[in-house]
């Protein structure tokens, strides 16, 4: 049976920081992807796969998921001929953890997708257009929606917006706020450039974190550890949280109105450090 990274396998998907996309037309990359430090792995049957290879890619994914592998799958948009075929193929797949719906624009698209899969299968809505962004709150509230993700490259093509962080700030903020209103885990940002070095990945992922997003897509498994690092509590944050919690347990006085919010933040940081295995990192 293929080896899944044990730490990542035990991590709830609502906390996943790095979401590694693996080309479904290249099944030889499935096992290395699953063994990597990626918190979640997506077999990609959409953008990475040419039209004449869709059937073969779909067969690769089904064979892998019924052969002991466990992964998420990015499926084609609901307005494509491949959407129905993707769902028919995946509806009985043993190792399917959930799907990412490409080009999500309407809440009904997410709900219809979820209804065609095994009951309870989570759907990540990938927002890639101006229409999708405008409807982000409704999509976040739709039955079946698990998280929102940002398809930055296609969004920029659709809108003409540059990749400058300031230019993209409004869109990222909309997804963060929509996720909060929809009571979802944090939004997932688009990927760094596939050829970006580790320092560049960390720097751009800090922007992701500063916008309030808690996950990031990834096209290169060599980048996942940099994404995990940037989207985890820092050593200083963990140290502050430990000091705060220890002081509280020792009977520290409330002091002022900021005390309880700071205490809640300290507990959240400590919980994340525990989930991500940072205590012994």
UniProtKB/TrEMBL annotation:
List all membrane-crossing ranges: none
UniProt keyword list: Lyase, Magnesium, Metal-binding
**Does the keyword field hold Heme?**
no
Q: What residues does the HpcH/HpaI aldolase/citrate lyase domain cover?
A: 18-220
Q: Does the keyword Metal-binding apply?
A: yes
Molecular function terms, GO-annotated: lyase activity
Q: Name one Pfam family in it.
A: HpcH_HpaI
Q: Which InterPro entries would you find in this protein's record?
A: Aldolase/citrate-lyase_domain, Citrate_lyase_beta/mcl1/mcl2, Pyrv/PenolPyrv_kinase-like_dom, Pyrv_kinase-like_dom_sf
Give the protein's recorded name: CoA ester lyase
Cofactor(s) this protein requires: Mg(2+)
Q: Which organism is it from?
A: Citricoccus zhacaiensis
